[in-house]
Structures are given as C-alpha cells and as structure tokens.
Design brief:
Blueprint (H helix, E strand, L loop, with lengths): L8 E4 L5 H20 L3 H15 L9 E8 L2 E13 L2 E11 L8 H15 L5 E3 L6 H9 L15
Parallel strand pairs: 4-5
Antiparallel strand pairs: 1-2, 2-3, 3-4
Length: 161
C-alpha cells in the first residue's frame, strides 16, 4: 500500500443494485448477531429481517438514509450506508454499514470511505458521526480508532457452564 490514500468516490446506489445489497446486508448482520452476539442462527436471521424492515421500510427511498456505492476509477470497491438519526437534543450521521469488497481490502478504501462518510455528514449539517462495530472485528476497530473515533460503550459477556 502506498502512503497516499487511494482515490475513491461515492455514488448513490441504483435500484437494480439494491436487492443484492439488501440480501448481503441481512446475511452479514445475522452472521454478526450469531457469531458475536451469542444468539442462535434462527434468532439472528429473524432479528436481521425485522431490523432491516423497520430501518429501511421504503428501501432506497427511505427518508434520511443514503446508500452509496464506493468507487475507484469508475469501478465498484464497496458500499456505504449512512442515515440521519437523533442524538440527545441534536442529530448525528450513523454509519449502518461500510463494506469494502473482499478483493479490494487492505488497499486503503475503508479509510477513504470513512473520510467520504465524514464529508457527507458535514454536507447534511450533521455535527457528529457514529457507528457500531461488533467485538472481534479488530481490523475495523483499529481503523476507526486511527481516524479519531472513541469507543463509547463496550458490551461484554461470558458463557457459563
């Protein structure tokens, strides 16, 4: 990887790209719930379906949500899903999902996409950006820390015999 971040841009996701994105998003979220949340696969799949239906009731047209394709040189390298959410008496930009395509990982596109997310939040007048990362995802946690994100909560658990 070179010292400079790769050039990346965002473009709104097209309607024909949304079904595949939604299926991957549901699957990935369910996997995280099961693997990192200690829930059964059946529960995780049901929760993922319910949460996606509640959060994105109008798909790409859900107000306050922006789903982008991350591109470099006109080629897709990942996706970024942002939304405006309440935060106390103010609003914040929430990163629901950032995913860099497997073949493009380790090249700096995650960092570039996070910087684009910050610019997008500023363009909407949102003074804060937040996200959730499951424990065990050290690569993502290290990236977020390197960009100045601070952990605001850590949930811990121990399975008992």
């Amino acid at each position: 990887m070179t010292d400079s971040a790769p050039r990346a841009t965002l473009r709104p996701m097209r309607p024909d790209e949304f079904p595949a994105f939604l299926a991957r998003s549901k699957e990935g979220y369910a996997r995280d719930i099961a693997e990192h949340g200690g829930e059964s696969e059946e529960f995780a799949l049901r929760k993922s379906e319910e949460d996606h239906a509640a959060i994105l009731p109008q798909g790409l047209d859900t107000p306050g949500h922006w789903i982008f394709v991350v591109e470099s040189g006109g080629e897709r390298v990942g996706v970024l899903w942002l939304a405006e959410r309440p935060h106390g008496r103010d609003r914040e930009c929430y990163i629901y999902s950032i995913e860099i395509d497997e073949a493009e990982r380790g090249k700096g596109y995650g960092r570039a996409a996070m910087q684009l997310a910050e610019a997008e939040a500023r363009s909407h007048g949102l003074p804060r950006i937040a996200l959730n990362v499951f424990g065990g995802n050290e690569v993502a946690r290290n990236l977020y820390r390197s960009l100045g994100y601070a952990e605001s909560a850590v949930h811990m658990a121990k399975d008992l015999d």
